Amino acid sequence: MKENIKLTPAASKGRLLSLDALRGFDMLWIIGGGGFLTTLAQVTDAPWIDALGKQMEHVVWNGFHFYDLIFPLFMFISGVAIPYSVKSALAKNPSKAKLVLKVFKRMAILIILGILYNGVFRDGFENARYASVLGQIGVAYFFASVIYIFSGSIRATVIWIAAILAGVSVMQLFVPVPGVGAGVFTPEGCINGHIDRLYLPGRLAYGPQGMVQGNGIYDALGILSVFSAIGITLMGIIAGKILQDKNRSDYRKTLTMVIIGFCMIPAGILLSPVYPVIKVCWTTPYNFVAGGISFLLLALFYFIIDVRGLAGWSFFFRVIGMNSIFIYLFVRVVPVGNVVSYFTGWITKPMGDTGSVIAVLFSIAAEWLLLWYMYKKEVFVKV
Q: Can you give the pTM of this predicted structure?
């Protein structure tokens, strides 16, 4: 497979390489990049490395770290792809019912894979956690796709986002939790947890201090969070529509996304004193901050790769991004670190603390080489 290093401007002329690269950039932190920085922070005394390491950990409740961006960014990217995939499907002249059935099947597969990812065969169905990252991606992708299929304009999409986020905000701010009241943003008092305890089947994975081994009191991937996730997926659809707009120049497309991003982030921050930025119950201010950063990152990758044609440096990320679901599941099932250590421990163990950092790099390298081999063989696992 010949790799193009210099591209002609305008993503409309071919595949959005920037989208694959951004997806790969996002996945890198899940499959080892985050572990590398946290391990590096543990073995060094440099304050700036320690600060980076902390950004690779989820905020337990109120606040925002870089690692809290990973999941919504992936959903945003999924949304960007929807206008392209629907346009491609419509070229074959299927009925809208067939398109809906297609995305419904994708949702069902992702829900099943998510339950398997959570270890249903390990823990048993009685104690299973049915809420999952892949399941939430599937549900949000399905509803966002249906909205786009039947009302695909930017104006209609904005109205849907406003309606969904307004509905979530009303629930979180004004609907009282029995014995607690309304607008109480604590793990015990948030409406998200109350709804999950009433209606979400299976084990709830979160307690007051984050994830728990037994049954918790809410789930970060719970019912109300799914609606918020639909919102950020729809934001991605808006970005995709902007990129498809033939009446805008490539520079104007970039500028439009930058302006949207720089408007959304302050909106979320300004709301946070009364309506906090909380990932695990996916508040609307969190959606604004995560969505705004996602717009800015897409604008940056798009401008460098697809507008300026500087694609060579992004190959590393694109190899990951083109098999993102596969590698997400692979590192869950296969203990890559243990396998790699079996062959490289003679190098890393005598090095002490430094060796633990090198061991993480070896694992990332092994994962990337597997993905590179799949890329060369044109094996792309799609759902």
A: 0.93
